[in-house]
Design brief:
alpha+beta, Helix Hairpins, 2 domains, five-stranded mixed sheet, two-stranded antiparallel ribbon, globular, disordered C terminus, binds adenosine-5'-triphosphate, binds magnesium ion, transferase, EC 2.7.13.3, phosphoprotein, HisK_dim/P_sf, nucleotide-binding
Length: 267
């Protein structure tokens, strides 16, 4: 005779399973919120450094303008101050946009603008390590159906990894183009860094996999969560992320994301 007692079976009753599933969903959504807050924190700290740097430029050129009374020096000082102030405004706009748009919803998004904004935040860091940054935006590229915030997080992770792989001097290419597969756009971040050995390539997207001993002098890196987060975000966008790497030559990460056509945008 089969027992009817639940205690003797391994599967809990459906009501409990349902409760557990709800609890898991709740925890997952809490985790996503904390991840997005942590990413905002990281972005804010990067931006604060950048902002401070811009302020130093403004202060120094204002001093120069006060010291030198001739028209030529003053014109030069004022145009430098204007350019730096415009950069400062761009930095705060980027942060405010991230902080304001917490919905994380998918919208038709111009990825070229996201790339440019993100590079503004890392300009000082790239200059410091003498990394030359090239962008190639194919004007034929259609807007993608993405959460701009999340894709910016992916980009920051990839760009910081690339910078860390290059040390002093190096070449970074960020390219945006229509994908060879129709209905998709393709974003590539290519560096001339150390490369990734064949045997570690399968592990790089695993959570907590890292070859870094801890944060570097700019306070970044070392938890091994960057690429795991990138993969999770790209999967949630029904996209794909892949990597090609040669030790001693460099690494390229390529992301494929769906374009926003009329139907998707309305969904
Ligand atoms: N562009 C790259 N060039 C060389 N190695 C890379 C590159 N990107 C990632 N890696 C390797 O993959 C590992 C995992 O990267 P991931 O971004 O997930 O973690 P991390 O950078 O070590 O730490 P963090 O959580 O701070 O990002 C790195 O430790 C590094 O060994
Ligand atoms: Mg990383």
């Amino acid at each position: 005779m089969q027992t009817t007692s639940n205690a003797s079976t391994n599967s809990p009753p459906p009501a409990i399973v349902h409760d557990q599933q709800l609890a898991i969903e709740h925890l997952k959504s809490q985790l996503r919120k904390s991840q997005s807050m942590a990413a905002l924190g990281e972005l804010t700290s990067t931006a604060t450094h950048e902002f401070n740097n811009v302020l130093m430029t403004i202060i120094n050129y204002a001093r120069l303008g006060i010291r030198n009374r001739d028209d030529e020096s003053r014109d030069k000082a004022l145009s430098k101050i204007l350019a730096a102030s415009e950069r400062a405004a761009k930095i705060t706009t980027t942060i405010l946009a991230q902080a304001r748009n917490r919905s994380e919803s998918l919208e038709p998004t111009d990825l070229a603008a996201i790339i440019s904004d993100t590079l503004v935040l890392l300009e000082r860091e790239m200059n410091k390590y003498r990394i030359s940054v090239t962008t190639q935006f194919d004007p034929e590229t259609k807007p993608a159906l993405v959460s701009g915030n999340q894709i910016q997080r992916v980009l920051l992770n990839l760009l910081i990894n690339a910078r860390q792989a290059m040390g002093e001097g190096g070449e970074l290419l960020v390219r945006l183009q229509p994908s060879s597969e129709s209905g998709y756009v393709e974003l590539t971040v290519r560096d001339s860094g150390s490369g990734i050995p064949q045997e570690t390539l399968p592990n790089i997207f695993d959570p907590f996999f890292t070859t870094k001993s801890g944060p570097d002098e700019s306070g970044k890196g070392g938890t091994g969560l960057g690429l795991a987060a990138c993969k999770e975000i790209i999967d949630a966008h029904s996209g794909r992320i892949r990597v090609e790497s040669t030790v001693g030559v460099g690494t390229a990460f390529t992301i494929r994301l769906p374009i926003a056509n009329g139907n998707q945008a309305a969904a």
